Amino acid sequence: MNLDFIPLRFLKPFAQGVVRLPRPLLRLAAGKPTRVDGQELDLLCQVIARHFYIPSELLESVEATRNDYERTGTLLGHEPTSPVALRAFTVEGPAGPVPCELHRPAQVAETNAPALIYFHGGGHVTGSLNTHRLACRQLAVESDAVVIAVDYRLAPENKFPAGIEDALAAYDEIAARADELGIDPNRIAVGGESAGGNVAAVIAQHRRDANPAPRFQLLLVPWLDMSQYSRSYELFESGFHLSKELMDWYTGHYLTGPEDALNPLASPLLGDVQGVCPAAVLVAGFDPLRDEGLAYAEKLDASGVPTTLRRFDSLIHPFMNFAGQVPAARSAFEEVARVLKVGLSKPAHPQV
Length: 352
Description:
Elements: H1 8-19, H2 23-30, E1 35-36, E2 39-40, H3 43-51, H4 62-72, E3 84-93, E4 96-105, E5 113-119, H5 129-143, E6 146-150, H6 162-176, H7 178-181, E7 183-193, H8 195-206, E8 216-220, H9 231-235, H10 244-254, E9 279-286, H11 290-302, E10 307-316, H12 327-345
Parallel strand pairs: 5-6, 5-7, 7-8, 8-9, 9-10
Antiparallel strand pairs: 1-2, 3-4, 4-6
Helix pairs in contact: 2-3, 5-12, 6-8
């Protein structure tokens, strides 16, 4: 459904009204229950997948696709529930300043606080601080941690590995400025969803020997392998919000050529994970990226990396963006906050 016909001031009430319809009307809007690979799709996720998606015609324009995400990315997000101080600042990237936002909940200390450096999703082409501000804010509240969102460069204006270079520089500077930012340099996690999970996994690999190294990696529905299609691409090729067509569109804009897909900076599933920090990998059942997330969790575990795997079998890919209004996504979001809080509280994992 293209929602451009709805004025912006009515867009959020419209979307929230749809997901609050009585169950019989939701079932009518969703159609017959969807069951694939032994999983049943959550009813509200089925409605979202069927009616709230990026129309193919928008993919003809990067600007239109970005604008659509900016308009719709927070429609079903969390409403603020607790006081959170927001601080905007920049770090120095290889091509200039990289914007960041620091979210500090009222209950979190002004000094020496645990922190998550968060990278937004959007296929390395779309997404921004704005599209993920509500999720970052609420994650900070529920995990009792500072969350620092990083607005790394996007393709096609800045192709691979520009965004990764920004992210690595952001990690280094944030860790170096820990005292100024009021965070504990020895309790910094890296995380993100989709393309942001891709970024976080790369940082965990490439900063494993840094001082300080990341304490924990939080990988939410992560994009980990651009070199091939896993079985879940076939199972969920279309009709589940994130499609194979859209993933191909992202990859085509992000990479300069097929050879880039074999680079672990693009496909961390192909990289060396020995001795990286402990990880949580959280995957959605109805997601083309599901199986590469499962494969990465298995690779981490086989390499001796303490790894928590969570499968949310009834959900579709971008559940963080609608966890404010969809109960099944809300439950998953709470689990995300729990595993982050635990991951930041555990002693540092010794290097192998």
